[in-house]
Amino acid sequence: MKKFIFYFLFLSSLGLNAQTNNESLDLILEKIENLEIELARLANQIDSNTFEVQKLDESNQARYVDLDKRIHELEAIILLSKEEEEETNEELKIENPLAELIEKDGEEEEFTLWSNTLKLIDNSRYSEAAENLRFLILSYPNGAYLVDSYFWLGEIYFLQEMNEDAYETYFSLINNFPDHERVSTSLYKLGLISIKLEKNEEAIAFFERVILNYPNSGSSVLSEQELIKLKKLI
Fold first, then answer.
1. Secondary structure of 35-88 as H, E, C letters
2. Total domains present in the chain
3. Which of 73, 94, 125 marks a domain boundary?
4. N or C: which terminus of the chain carries fewer CB neighbours within 10 A?
């Protein structure tokens, strides 16, 4: 019996150590969505199984920054020297491999910063995480984690009740990336923030937009619940 327990604990330990950054992010988002569902359930006495678990699209980890743009910028710097125009072709052959290394380093730095930010969020160190996310947005405008940086920055502002900042961040996301999967959740959050800002008509518009454009999403279910409450107040 003791051997069985030891073997079970050993396997459990291995499973825990195998978690990736994406799984950690899914767990964080699941906690947030579970809290939202529970609040909605208590307010409306509905079944708590209607919550949505938003997942980080694994394809985000596979995206790369725009290599052509960065390489062209490096080439432009080389071409600034008119005195070396005759040697431009040779310089490009020499510098381009270096540019590729710089890009590779840039991508690794972005990924490292993103991974560290997820750990900060997981440990509820929101101020430090927000600072990292703002840095990611400013430093990697074409980065692989740009949209998710906007989203999680909005989430942090929302949790800290920094409503104006949260509103601005979510609004930037839906305007700049209208086709991204984060839009439905961002619209729902904009509705919640509008309620806090006593802009009920605007909140209704956001919730109706979610229901109309994303009818099969968890955010749509939550939006319907909020609409019921709002219409009782109007």
1. HHHHHHHHHHCCCHHHCCCCCCCCHHHHCCCCHHHHHHHHHHHHHCCHHHHHHH
2. 2
3. 125
4. N
